[in-house]
Amino acid sequence: PVLIETAPAEDVPWQLPERYFIHFGQLIRRKGTEWLGEALLRVWQDEPDFRMVWVGQPTEQLDQIIARWGSCRDRVLVLGALKKPELYHVLRRAEAAVLPSIVDNLPNTVIESLMFGVPVIGTAGASIDELVEDGVSGTLVPMGDTRALASAIVRVWRGQHLP
Predict the structure, then answer these.
(1) pLDDT at 106
(2) pLDDT at 10
(3) How many helices and strands, by DSSP H and E, does the chain display?
(4) What are the residue ranges in the chain where pLDDT is below 50?
(5) Which helix (H) or strand (E) holds 131?
(6) 95 near 107, Cβ under 8 Å?
(7) Is 61 exposed, middle or buried (0-12, 13-18, 19+ CB in 10 A)?
(8) d(Cα 104, Cα 108) in Å, to the nearest integer?
């Protein structure tokens, strides 16, 4: 049984993209943020309209990732850290959550995504596979494989591999 202890906000003060995937939590290397940032460069080659919303505390590393995107940087809305009602509003509207952790232990981000029925694109072997059933509640990719991560994102964006 799942209990949502905090209701999603009815509205948020940002203009969200019409369609988007979400990456949220700690925006750091061990949570796969750097790896995802590289994968997005491949995604935009196949799907230039792909959009994401990132939610989490900005870091110097995040600034470096965004700088590598060049003219594509406007395709990711970085909202910073949010309170749970606002986060849940953004999360429940997402078409998928991209959570490619390198190291994790039953991540709350995955649990919260699944709680709202949002499929997860995550890594096999980093505890995410203990929560996500590949092809049922999400898609699992090999850890560190940028090509596989980008391919999974594109497939799900196109509706070709939705749980």
Answers:
(1) 84
(2) 92
(3) 5, 6
(4) 163
(5) none
(6) no
(7) middle
(8) 10
**Token code pair at residue 40:** 């997005």
Task: State both tokens at 108.
Answer: 């709350």
Distance between CA atoms of residues 128 and 106, nearest Å: 7
Q: Using CA atoms in the order 144, 150, 153, 154, what is the torsion angle rounded to 10 degrees?
A: -160
Q: What is the pLDDT of residue 160?
A: 86
- What is the side-by-side strand order in the sheet with 120-124? 76-80, 52-55, 21-24, 97-99, 120-124, 138-142
* Cβ neighbours, 10 Å, residue 65: 22
Helix (H) or strand (E) holding 22: strand 21-24
Segments in the chain forming alpha helices (H): 33-46, 60-68, 84-93, 108-115, 146-157
Q: Judging by DSSP bridges, how do beta strands 120-124 and 21-24 pair with one another?
A: unpaired
The answer for residues whose C-beta is within 8 angstroms of residue 31's C-beta and 6 or more apart is: 25, 99, 100, 101, 102, 104
pLDDT of residue 128: 92
Give me the amino acid identity at 118: V
d(CA 36, CA 102): 11
> How much is the pLDDT for 2?
66
